[in-house]
Amino acid sequence: MQREPQATNAMLMARRQAAIPRGVGHSHQIFIAKGENAEVWDVEGRRYIDFAGGIAVLNTGHRNPAVIEAVKAQLDQYTHTCFQVLAYEPYVELAERLNAKAPGDFAKKTLFLTTGAEAVENAIKIARAHNGRSGVIAFTGGYHGRTLLTLGLTGKVAPYKTGFGPFPGEIFHARFPSALHGVSVDDAIASVEQIFKNDIEARRVAAIIIEPVQGEGGFNVAPPELMQRLRALCDQHGILMICDEVQTGAGRTGTWFACEQSGIAPDLITLAKSMAGGFPISAVVGRAEVMDAPAAGGLGGTYAGSPMACAAALAVMDEFEKHDLLQRSRDVGQRITASLQALAKKHTCIADVRGLGAMVAMELCKNGDPHQPDADLTKALAAEATKRGLIILTCGTYGNVVRILVPLTASDALLDEGLAIIAASLEAAFAA
């Protein structure tokens, strides 16, 4: 009997190209066969260190044993009922625990959905239902999802918005601060005020939505002063403040929610990605009276808050408490930042090293000039790192930012091995 040839990355990628639309991009031409904590092996048996974490989804690592065990136990009970038809306790317990964790000395309620974009869309729906207003202010460089409404909120055209317009109306973009690029907090607040003067009166704005750390935008950190002044501005005009924590939430930045570090309590928080360790779930957490604004039946979804995902999310929260992963996030961030800062002293192309907790990035520019983003070098570095056994991601408005989202459960030795590969890859990319 003739044996089937062993699958290779190239063979599988050829099948992928024939069966799947090009709009589903790929940063690496690799097919995974196995994942374990912060390491993966491809179908050809090659091992990689994972500094991408499924784009901030695997804070507790690939196949975390506690998460897997919780899902297996749930599978033996029931897999789906649709919560709106037959309720189940894990959904309620998870909501209770998130309500307790969210900042703010007020009653809270939580809604579960399936994706980050769904969470953002529903946060806007809830805000509009609460105050009867329609306008929304987002920020340049922000990323909020791939649906039409969330694309309208997203402040980056290529590749997300190209060819998909027109987008929903009454969405406006303020400037996001960046010390590297000469945009101050005063500039950002002034741009919001300018929107009130030029585009829509404040009394018609339902919400201002902001990422405490921009994800796709390049890991730009919102200064605490900005968050505090936005909170005051929202209070002044009766506008709801929404923090999009789809990427920053679930402990990535050293606190469960990144907005905690600014000392403010938003009205609504969106959460997804790593909250269930790889199982699809998202959430909107917010003021009880705001969350109760939509009428019965106005919120929900067939697969929203699935039993398996709720069980996984509860296990993730237990793992954070058991292993003090919030402190680990801070420690991992310090180790990565120190390594990249040392690298920046040797290479002028590293214009900036920035981040919050274990959400760290470096921006590459020609001769360190912020006005000359070096996307080619960034792409070459990422490709070289892959050859050397490290998975990393790029991002930023100009594609010149290398971002690190390694699982918090990675050992120090593995972190150092990956960081050494980044250093060697940068040298090789220069030499090429």
Automatic annotation (TrEMBL):
Keywords: Aminotransferase, Pyridoxal phosphate, Transferase. It holds the Pfam family Aminotran_3. SUPFAM superfamilies: PLP-dependent transferases. It is an enzyme of class 2 (transferase). One of its GO terms (molecular function) is 4-aminobutyrate:2-oxoglutarate transaminase activity. PROSITE patterns: AA_TRANSFER_CLASS_3. Its EC number is 2.6.1.19, 2.6.1.22. InterPro entries: 4NH2But_aminotransferase_bac, Aminotrans_3, Aminotrans_3_PPA_site, Class-III_PLP-dep_AT, PyrdxlP-dep_Trfase, PyrdxlP-dep_Trfase_major, PyrdxlP-dep_Trfase_small. The keyword Transferase applies. The keyword ATP-binding does not apply. CDD domains: OAT_like. Its cofactor is pyridoxal 5'-phosphate. Belongs to the class-III pyridoxal-phosphate-dependent aminotransferase family. This is 4-aminobutyrate aminotransferase/(S)-3-amino-2-methylpropionate transaminase. It comes from Hydrogenophaga palleronii.
